[in-house]
Design brief:
Oligomer: single chain
Strand content: 5-15%
Organism: Vibrio fortis
Structural class: alpha+beta
Mean pLDDT: 74
Distance between the termini: 140 Å
Number of strands: 11
GO molecular function: ATP binding; protein serine/threonine kinase activity
Keywords: ATP-binding, Kinase, Membrane, Nucleotide-binding, Serine/threonine-protein kinase, Transferase, Transmembrane, Transmembrane helix
Low-confidence stretches: 48-53, 412-417, 439-477
CATH superfamily of one domain: Transferase(Phosphotransferase) domain 1
Helix content: 40-55%
Number of helices: 17
Order of helices and strands: HHHHEEEEHHEEEHHEEEEHHHHHHHHH
Protein name: Serine/threonine protein kinase
CATH class of one domain: Mainly Alpha
CATH architecture of one domain: Orthogonal Bundle
Length: 477
């Protein structure tokens, strides 16, 4: 047994062994290095629960205190500047090229030397190559990679900006502006996923916002020994080492299970809830948060692009992807989205309804007038002409017709129909002009009535039923 190994290296050698083999090796280690045995035993104690990752990170963070400082050193073609930040697995420094060929700013991330021994150069550079293939305006570009004094380093784009949390605190953004900012972050993550890169540790500190409001995602986690599993159209990653932040880590990460694109979707949902909305979601955005952060990966958005689309739907008052296309909420959002069109459409519909009601009322009124006129003309006919075909005193009938018609017109019960007095007077003149000879050869039957339009109809300004006269056409034969 090599007793010069670190506790982390020894931990990974023992993690896959059974209990009896572990005890045998630890017993040997304890005799030569009691402190090393205690450290490894502590790591193994938490290996099967969700504290394992934290224990490893604490160990590496403690080890980093004695790690060499890279400030003012020359590493390959780069001059290292001041330290920008430090985590459990790595430290980030500002850097620039020391030659005069290019004047550019960089951020160089130096991983703890033990990471190289644990995970291997091939795995680390493979992940770095995947990152280098990603080119997106909202993702910090990876330019180069190498090894310096046993520590692997990654040369990245230097982003001069504030963390997402600090940017939101120092800028008064409207709700719409926040949604647009978050949408751009989601689309950047989607682009990385399309290049088979999963971030694995999305949080506000890993999203920088430039002075012009452009977000930049940094610190994609390559410090993970990964096994990529192809399962149909899905790509799973089984990490052995993965730095996570508990408030933003998905349930499968905390359980140390396989992760995929939906793991990043969960972290995006947590960022939306905790930082964008300040834990105060309202309206449809509540549904978006619930779907993005569902405990079951199969119940979440399948892609970051789907999450971005629903963010845009909320911003523009479109229905969410999970909503019915004919629901009341969809109609309501359509009205909010196009108020002018909605107002014009409503006015048009109301106008058409008013016209239909008016026409219906006018038609009913005309029908009532026609029925009333028919009754009046029948009354006039019955009053003027005898119903008995055997009547022979035609001269007396003709002499009496005009008086009978005037009597009908002057009856109080007909006073509600003044506009038809002229029509009836005209009818009276036609009837009165008939001679006894006309009647003698024409049997007059009130049941045989034909309505004819009078010549004066076109002179009336108002709409009214056709002017009518009574004509009797049955021949005595």
């Amino acid at each position: 047994m090599d007793f010069n190994l670190s506790s982390t290296q020894l931990f990974y050698r023992l993690i896959d062994k059974n209990a009896s083999e572990r005890d045998l090796i630890l017993s040997d280690v304890r005799q030569n290095s009691p402190q090393l045995a205690r450290n490894v035993n502590e790591l193994l104690k938490h290996a099967n629960n969700d504290f394992a990752i934290n224990a490893l990170e604490v160990h590496l963070s403690t080890a980093n205190e004695s790690t060499v400082c890279y400030e003012n050193l020359r590493v390959d073609r780069y001059v290292i500047g001041h330290e920008l930040g430090r985590g459990g697995f790595a430290a980030v420094y500002y850097a620039a090229r020391h030659d005069s060929l290019f004047h550019h700013q960089y951020a160089i991330k130096f991983f703890h030397p033990e990471i190289l021994g644990l995970l291997g150069q091939e795995a680390l550079f493979s992940e770095a190559q995947l990152l280098a293939n990603v080119s997106h305006s909202n993702i910090a570009k990876v330019y180069d990679a190498g090894i310096y004094n046993g520590a692997i380093y990654i040369v990245m784009e230097f982003v001069d900006g504030l963390s997402l949390r600090d940017y939101l605190s120092s800028h008064s953004l409207s709700f719409e502006q926040k949604l647009m900012l978050f949408r751009d972050i989601c689309l950047a993550v989607e682009h990385a996923h399309q290049h088979h890169v999963i971030h694995g540790d999305l949080k506000p500190e890993n999203i920088l916002v430039c002075s012009d409001g452009t977000p930049k995602i940094i610190d994609f986690n390559i410090a993970q020994k990964v096994q990529r599993l192809s399962t149909g159209d899905r790509e799973l990653i089984t990490p052995n080492v993965l730095a996570v932040t508990r408030n933003y880590a998905s349930p499968e990460q905390l359980d140390n299970d396989a992760i995929d694109k939906r793991t990043d979707v969960y972290a995006l949902g947590r960022i939306l809830y905790l930082d964008i909305l300040r834990a105060q979601p309202r309206g449809d955005i509540t549904k978006v948060v619930a779907l993005a952060t569902h405990s079951s990966p199969s119940r979440r958005y399948a892609r970051a692009k789907d999450l971005a689309q629903d963010i845009e739907n909320v911003r523009c008052f479109f229905p969410l992807s999970q909503e019915s296309k004919v629901s009341v909420e969809v109609i309501k959002k359509s009205m909010i989205r196009s108020p002018v069109f909605t107002l014009c459409s409503t006015a048009l519909v109301l106008s058409m309804m008013a016209i239909i009601v008016a026409l219906s009322t006018a038609t009913q009124d005309l029908n009532r007038q026609k029925l009333t006129l028919d009754e009046m003309l029948n009354d006039v006919t019955a009053s003027v002409y005898p119903l008995n075909n055997d009547l022979t005193d035609w001269e007396a009938v003709i002499e009496n017709r005009e008086n009978q018609l005037k009597l009908v017109l002057d009856t109080p019960s007909r006073s509600f129909w003044p506009q038809r007095r002229g029509d009836l007077n005209s009818s009276m003149q036609v009837v009165s002009s008939s001679t006894a000879d006309d009647i003698e050869y024409n049997i007059i039957d009130p049941m045989n009535i034909r309505l004819m339009q009078s010549e004066g109809d076109q002179e009336h300004d108002e709409i009214h039923p056709t002017d009518e006269v009574v004509i009797f056409n049955e021949s005595v034969g």
